[in-house]
Write a structure and sequence with these properties.
The protein has 85 residues and is of the alpha+beta class. It has one domain: GMP Synthetase, Chain A, domain 3 (2-Layer Sandwich), CATH 3.30.300.20. The chain contains three helices and three strands. It has a three-stranded mixed beta sheet. The longest helix has 11 residues. It is globular, with a radius of gyration of 13 Å. The chain starts with a helix and ends in a 7-residue tail after the last strand. Keywords: Cell shape, Cell wall biogenesis/degradation, Chaperone, Cytoplasm, RNA-binding. Pfam families: KH_KhpA-B (PF13083). InterPro entries: KH_dom-like_a/b (IPR015946), KH_sf_prok-type (IPR009019), KhpA (IPR020627). It is found in: Cytoplasm.
Amino acid sequence: MADIKALIKTVVTPLVQYPADIAIDFKETNRYLEYNLTVNPEDIGRIIGRQGRVASAIRTIVYSVRVSGPKRVRLTIEDGQKKNS
């Protein structure tokens, strides 16, 4: 699991202005190995890109990693802002 985290961090770090704010959380469900990428709110546009092209490219790279077993990798991108409940 740490290899996928390292891959995400390696791909994302050169794209952002605040690399110290990058956080990657991992959660395993019945069907997925879920990774939540959180970046500084000022960097979210750089990660998503125009019409989501950068986010799509990041997901393509991450999803191409071979994992053992039937589970698939899922990447969610969040902007780091606290959500009001």
